[in-house]
């Protein structure tokens, strides 16, 4: 019976895989640079040989790219963007690896398992508390599938709106940890407006050339089922989390958020966001950096003051003076 069912679903899954196969080319830099020696030439040779000689079926099955937001269970003030690369196992189970960016240097941040409501309802009650709903992520427009046609993204969101996810992050680069220290942490998804950091969402939208508000309108016809009992347990005071015996803190990232990133050339962009008020410059360890924010039409550039060593942050007052202007980033 399962074999017949899977065979019937194959055309739909094949269409979805083909539709999603070309996505993921939007540059989203990683949050951290890892310590360690640079790759040696012989390592590069070994890598090249592996590319030519080894097959990687599990990796090649990661044909869907989703971008959304998570927060630490029990710590909604600790939020981050998450790049999901997913394999659709069947009509009711999806597995995703999560990175902190979409470049070759992105760090593997965690995993998410996604199941249908019918499978979620078979789970033990204690297990359900580890899972979160996706209805608001879809309906709010905050969950996106970059670079695919709108009709394909809409079809994918209809599949996801009634699903449930179980997510653990193992490398907390949003906390600027250069190595995967501490224990895995349970993550949750947003369930109502006003909870995701507006500047974080706005910056992501600007980088991808999308507007979450427009996607919300486009998805008004997607029916959101009632959230199944047991999911989103943090809303009823049961915020599940793994204690960290190493004593490693999992505090929120600085309020200034992630650094603004230049979108790819030729993208159709909305107005640069108010997120410029918390402009941050990326600096390598031990260096000083400054932001240059260039106003439109050849106006003179304004410089953010060089930040304290290692902070990588510009003066909010200076950045606010040029909010709404295109920006350039360069090392001081």
Compose a concise summary of this entry.
With 332 residues, the chain is of the alpha+beta class. Helix content is 25%, strand content 18%.
Describe it for me?
- The chain is α+β, with helices and mostly antiparallel strands and 332 residues long.
- It folds into 2 domains: 7-21 and 58-236, no CATH class; 274-330, no CATH class.
- The protein contains 10 helices and 10 strands.
- The chain has helices at residues 2-20, 41-53, 57-60, 117-120, 125-128, 135-139, 150-160, 198-208, 212-218, 316-321; strands at residues 64-72, 75-90, 93-99, 108-115, 132-133, 164-169, 185-188, 290-293, 302-303, 328-330.
- A hairpin with an 8-residue loop joins β8 (290-293) and β9 (302-303).
- The longest helix has 19 residues, at 2-20.
- It starts with a helix and ends with a strand.
- The model is unreliable at 1-11, 17-26 and 255-332 (pLDDT under 50).
Work out the oligomeric state of the chains in this entry: single chain
Query: Strands of the biggest beta sheet: in what spatial order?
Result: 1-2-3-4-6-7
What is the helix content?
Answer: 25-40%
Q: Which regions are unreliable across 5 or more consecutive residues at pLDDT < 50?
A: 1-11, 17-26, 255-332
* Category by helix and strand content: alpha+beta
Shape designation: globular
The helix/strand series, from N terminus to C terminus, equals HHHEEEEHHEHHEEHHEEHE
From the N-terminal CA to the C-terminal CA, the straight-line distance is: 65 Å
User: Biggest β-sheet, characterized?
Assistant: 6 strands, antiparallel, barrel
**Count of helices?**
10
Strand count: 10
Number of domains: 2
Instruction: Indicate the proportion of strand residues.
Output: 15-25%
Radius of gyration: 21 Å
Residue-averaged pLDDT, rounded? 75
